[in-house]
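# step 3/5: fold
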Amino acid sequence: MKMIIDTDPGIDDAMAIFYAHAAPDIDLVGLTTMFGNVHVTQATRNAHFLLDMLELDIPVAEGAAQPYAIDDFEPSAHVHGPEGFGHVVDISSDRTPHHESAAEFLVRMAREHKGELVIAAVAPLTNIADAIRLDPEFGRNVAKIVVMGGAVDCAGNVTAHAEANIFHDPHAAEEVFASNCNLVLVGLDVTLQTLCSEGDFEEMARHAPKTGGFLKQIGAFYLDFYRSVEQHDGCGLHDSTAVIACTHPELFTLEEAAIEVVLDGTSIGNTVRQPGKAQNMITVCTDVDADRVNDLFLSRVCRNG
């Protein structure tokens, strides 16, 4: 499967990118970056840093720096650290961004690989909305877009209602949900069932000292956040769960539903079911075989070197 990951690295983004590189059923053809867990320039630098570690030569196209209609965006430093990788702040790379913007790169790759390209959108959806605005055929050219975002039947993680990726640009998310794209929503309903424990990080470091050791190092910050705020004994495999949903939909319970995004008020960013409505129909993951997803993630990342 040809895949682009639209990302804002980010601890769980690093985990997802390492998984995609290790997965034999994924041909990772590029990354697109944007604001979210960090500012967009940090996201691009972090993506290059991860590719250096993997010794992987693929394009990184830089995208959106701000949401569509919100002026007070600030990165999630308390979740991912000031530079996106926990306590690791010495992050550098000699690579330069791709000459195309994220939206231009997504549109071109979708045309060149019509019906084959899958996008794992694990950041706010501004780049995806930009691509849809740039090319009306974009939604028909991509095979599917799997979105890590939303909290359809559960509480949010930024507010009581909203999940972070949707909350950071609800207007872009609403445009994407209303598009003609083949969308799969992998939200907190399932990603908080797939938890990565301290023991899992230790196993990754033992079997893959370079990449697994790095994930253990940055994962310590993430685990501390989950212990203090979410009261979970482990951190969510959020972005990795979405990447796994691209290739292993059989591990998920899927439902077609009309979903709208709340665009103002105290519930802004909420992803709300609209029963009986025929528009904004997308595929929603409502449950997951968490043990099999976790085992798949761990077994592949442990072979990543």
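# step 4/5: annotate
Residues 211-230 form the longest helix (20 residues).
# step 5/5: archive (pending)
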